[in-house]
Each structure stands twice: as structure tokens, then as C-alpha cells.
Amino acid sequence: MIDYDRAMQATRRSILIGSARLAVGAGLVSLVGTIPARATPQTMRDAIREAVGDAPLRTGRVTLDIPSLVENGNTVPLTVAVDSPMTESDHVKTIHIFNEKNPQPHVITIALGPRAGKARVATRIKLADTQQVVAIAAMSDGSLWTASADVIVTIAACIEDVN
Fold first, then answer.
1. Which pTM does this prediction carry?
2. pLDDT at 14
3. Please, which residues bridge with residue 31 across strands?
């Protein structure tokens, strides 16, 4: 026969022990120094260098369509278009999106090819704060084209209070 009172006590005891372990663990984590969950303009430049190397970036051919003032940074519409015939000999290989203040500065990389028809992509991103957004298109001939836009965000996303 099962002693339900004893079974419930064991469950309560295990919950209390688990809660105490969790509290101690959280306390230890708070004692350890934390790294801010924000990127900087320098981390964005480092992410760009990691993604496309040290090749020169040229302005033009890329159109970055993003609102200059955003009320809520949780869902910001973004469209990138690249002037390209999208033929076998002249097409967009990749489009990279970067930002300077989100926890991860490299937002997305989109791979394209001549069969894509158009070099145009649209998405929504989160923005942690007022910042610059950069789009870079890598072409089939090895050239890199870029455009950037400054976005003012009134209600930020992606931010965790680390104080």
C-alpha cells in the first residue's frame, strides 16, 4: 500500500532542495562579472571583417530600405535590394546585414544565385537601441557593395539589464 503523505513529503522536500540549489546557483552567477549584452561599433566592424574579409567596400548598387524612426525595436521591417542583372556571370552571391548595438552584430546572411531572378530580400529584425544598420552585398566578381542607414528606436528590444 502507498503512503501518500510520505510520498508528498518527499516531493515537497525535493522541491525545496531544488529551489535552494537554484537560489545558490543564481547567487553565484550574480557574483561573477557579467559581460554587457550589447555590441559596439567596433564589434560590428569586427563582424564585418570576419564575414567578408578586408576587401574594400564600395558604396552604391545596394539599397537599404528601413524606417529612420521606429517606435518599437522588436520588429523593424527591412528590405535590401541590389542592382544586379542576376546572370551567370554577374550576380549577387550573398547579402549580409549588420548592426552596431544588438547583442550579436551579424544579423543575417542570405545566399543568392543567378536563378534567384532578383536580388531583393525583405525581413524583420530586432534593434536594441538607436543605431546604424549596414547591408553588404558580395558579388560573383568578388566585389563588395554596401549601404547603411541610421535608425532611431524609441522603445528598444534585445536589452537585458546587467546591473
1. 0.73
2. 67
3. none
